[in-house]
Fold:
Amino acid sequence: MTRSSIIIDLAEANIKDKRLPGDLAMWFFILAELTVFAIFFIGFAISEQLNPAMFSQGKDHLHPIAGLINTIALITSSFFVAFALRAMHKEQVKKSVLRLFFAKVFGTIYLAVKIWEYLSLFEQGISIETNTFFTLYFLITAFHLMHVLLGMVILVFIAHSIGQKKYTKNHNSGFEAGASYWHMVDLLWIILFPLIYVI
Amino acid sequence: MQKTKAINILISSWMLLILLSVIAIFLPTFIDNNNLYILSALMIVMIKGQQIVDVFMDLNNAPKLWRCLFLAYIVLLPIIIAGIYLM
Structure:
């Protein structure tokens, strides 16, 4: 075997190892979702430039610490989902279910904080019709919240499927697709949070 | 051995993401210049995005095209937003 053929074999092996986790359809769906949110984010930034005073006053009503708690909750939840998937790759079913449970706990913390934020704004008499800032704030965050809710349903479904032994070490593309969706929710939040709460 | 390394990378990535999130919220106390503050916050978004794409989503081990698509999103979107704010 010559040196060049070894190099070609290694390159081919490397290409074969490169694998997209989960289903291809889910990745196209994720790309579509990211595009929709990108339009929202750009629209928000342009609106802020058109009316900086209104947006600055609007941001004063928000709670950056609540936003930080939500950021930590989503990142930690996403971490536990990735950690659960690693356990499934080693066929450690119990560990995988336990880690998914923690992921759902942190997802629930996010939901609770978000609902508290909405209620505290409503108590101040602020609603989606107050001004452009709050229209965009409620639209973008509620749209994201819907994705979190869907992600939570997917996590419950994955845990149920693990219980029914539908996933194995080598056959877990449904788990990987659901995990990728949950990470997308996290990815969107890390852009949404500084844009709406911090900058 | 390799799987333990993968888990260590995952844990390190999680810790980095938490640390950057805390730094981002306290940026105004460190930086007075508004433009520098916006650029720093968006730079943090890029680093966090890269960690989620490569480590959590595991696109580091995916075909290059998909990884590049997602990394492009996490780099280009903050650049566009920075452009709008700094115009």
The domain at 21-198 of chain A is CATH 1.20.120.80 (Four Helix Bundle (Hemerythrin (Met), subunit A)). Residues 132-163 of chain A form the longest helix (32 residues). The interface with chain B takes residues 17-21, 27, 31, 34, 38, 41-42, 45-46, 48-49, 64-65, 67-68, 71-72, 75-76, 78-79, 81-83, 86, 89-90, 180, 183-184, 186-187, 190-191, 193-195, 198-199 of chain A (CB under 8 Å).
